[in-house]
Each structure stands twice: as structure tokens, then as C-alpha cells.
Amino acid sequence: MSHSTTKPLLFALAGAAVAGLLAGRGVPRIAPRPAKKQRRHSRRPVCRVVVVGAGFGGLAVASRLVGRPGIHLTVIDAHNHHLFQPLLYQVATAALSPGDIASPVRSILPESPSLHVMMARVTGVDTGAQHVLCGGQAVPYDQLIIATGSQPSYFGHADWAELAPSLKTLDDALGLRQQILHVFEQASAAIPADRGRLLTFVLIGGGPTGVEMAGSIAELARDVLARDFNLPGAQARIMLVEAGPRVLSAFTPDLSDYAAAALRTMGVEIRTGTSVTGIEPGTVHLGDQAVAAATVIWTAGTEATPVAKWLGVAPAHGGRVAVGPDLRIPGHPEVAVIGDAALALGSDGKPLPGLAPVAKQQGSFVARTILRRLHGRRAPGAFMYRDYGALATIGRNKAVAEFGAVHVTGFPAWITWAVAHIFFLIGFRNRVMVSAQWAFAYLTHERGNRLLIGREARS
Hints:
The chain contains 13 helices and 25 strands. By secondary structure, it is α/β, with parallel strands linked by helices.
């Protein structure tokens, strides 16, 4: 790329980043509204609200209820941090560090004497006694919101999880980063006959995560193998396997076709209409074909966390909990399930997708419902999701954006994707760090998080 081309692109990226920094809120750290001084013997009983899960939906609820008069808020999560999962693949491919996309829950929510944050793993819910069970501890509630998201689904092949790790947590991302960088090191010292297997990466699942991960690995291999190991990036074989007829099936066919063509120009091999029939150490079976690969990554299906089991209800499709128009479960108006764990229907009668905007809007809706009922006002009625569009990136200057009938590809879609993700990052520091690292990487093709940290990798 010539200097005359790079300069305006860099200015555009920097300008967009600044716009995102100034405008972005995400789930902001907001100061609690000052409560009016209560009399010592207040007539209003305290409503004990428990939020399980500190993802997008859970924080949307908590940020609107914290510090409110008459509410005691408890937030429970198995981790002490909120994770911006849409950028998790960039940690796995050494573009960002973990601290750039994660923030401690206690630092996001403002201090309040009526707020309690717990790092605990929920094991069940006693809906009769209205207790959330965390091992041997029972947390009472008057209103319960469950927003625990989803987990990988291996479609009945749980033994594949160890051989084909997924990408849902920081530990997953760091493990994959270790694996990818480790095979680069091994390939540099291996005989040519072994390099093919070491530099073969198979990604199973052609959704947004699979597409973004495949493109990022392709760029990492192209830049790092040539510069650090004197190996041509073309020696890396990145294979994206999708059982359906096309990648990015949630997008329109024209955008799927663009994504597939863009990936192919980056050297990614796409196998659509192909099912995985087996995974063994170092080998993936695609029908009758065996592919030798040192790295296999699961980016396919997900299922809800075991919320249905906790609540003692029959699980719906994907293990989710069927909820009513108000996002409550039948027979228990004090319990709401939102986000990926809920099977909620849109205005067209179809299930809402498991996306962050859905969870955030549902969280705001549930919080409004609680506040209105607390003040003796009518609940807002049925939840209505407002679809603002969908974005997916493929690589440098390559992305797709769908805003209803408006479809955008290439650099305009890529810069829109970048601004949107900076906008929704939590915390000013994270926005600054991500913007700076993206600008630096755009100018230099450099990834500064290529650190091996001592974990054992597969080979």
C-alpha cells in the first residue's frame, strides 16, 4: 500500500476511533441517582433484586437499578469481570490483550450501600423459597433476573471439547493464542514434511466468530510467519468448515458471498455443506476425508447455560427457557430470563437472535418493569426488540454490514464495525487502548501481544 493510500485510511480510522471514544457509552459507569433521605422507619419495603450474570444483559439491568431507593441489588457472576465477547477472537490472535476487552464488575457499577457483587457459581434456584443457590449459600430474592448467556454445544460429542476448544472466555482465548503461537515456533524448527500439519488450522462453524477468527489467523500467519520466522505465510492452511450451504447464514446471500470471496483472497479454504464426523488428536474427519491439523477450533453451535434445570422447567430449543412477552417465565412473575438463555419471540413470531443488542434491550426493559411496579405504576407491556442492523468483519478493510435493505461491504463496513465496537466497549481506558492498538496495527501490520506464557500446547 502506498503512502498516499495509507494516510487517508489511517486518518479515517483515527477519526472514527475518536468519534467512538467521545460518543461511546456501552454500559457506562453511571453515578447513582441521589436518593431522598428516608425516614428511619420507611413504609416502603426493600425489594431484593438478584441479577445472575454480568454480561451485556445483566449489566443493563444492574446499571439502571443500582442506587435506586427501595432496591437492594445483588449481582452474581462466576467471574469478577465483564467480558466484551465480540472482540475475544482478537485476544486469541494476539491483536489485543485481555485487559483491553474486560473490566472488573465492581469498577463498572458505582459504589452503593445497597449493592452487593458476588463472585460465585450458581448451582440452582429454589423458586418456592425464592433463593438463588450458590453451593452451600442461599441468596434470597424478590425479583430474579437470569442473564447467564450461552455455552458451546458439541451436538452430543462432549469428548470433542478437549480436542477442539471453543472461544467463550478469556481462558479460551489465551489458550488458543498459546496454541497458535506455539505451532508457529514448532514449524520454524520442523522439517518441511511436518510443517503442513503444524500450520493447518481447521475452524468448525462458519458464523461470525468462525469468519472473523479465520480472517484474523490468515492475517497473523501472513505477517508473522514471514517477518519473524522467514516462512512464507502461504504455507499456513486455514480451513473454515460449515455444515450449511454458506458462511454467515444469518446475513443475506449477497453479503455471505462477499465474505466467502474475501476470505478466499486471504488464502482461507472454505468447505460449505460439509459435516465433521470425527475429531482425533491431530486429525479432523470431514466425511470420508481425514485432515491432519495441529489446531482445531470450535466456532459452531451454542446452547443455553443450564437455566432450565435450575428453574425446574422444560428446556426449549437450544436448552433455552421459553419466556412470555414480558420476559417472565410462566407461573413465576418474579423471575425473568433474558439474553442467550431466553427463548423470546419477536414481533414476527420468530425467536430473537442471541446477540448483545438483544440482551441489552431486554435488560433495560426488565429494569423499567421493576421500577414501574415498585412505584405502583403499570408495567410497560410486551418487550419489543429494535433491530439496528448486523456487522461482521473479515479482515483489514473487509467487512459486511446489514441495515435492513441497506447492505454495505468493504472499507465503509469495516470502519463502521470498528466505530461500533469502540462505542460499545466499557470504560474510557479500554476505548483508548483498543483505538490506539488498532491504529498502530493498521499502520505497521504489527501485533504486540505475541507472548508465550508457559501453557502446554497441542502439536
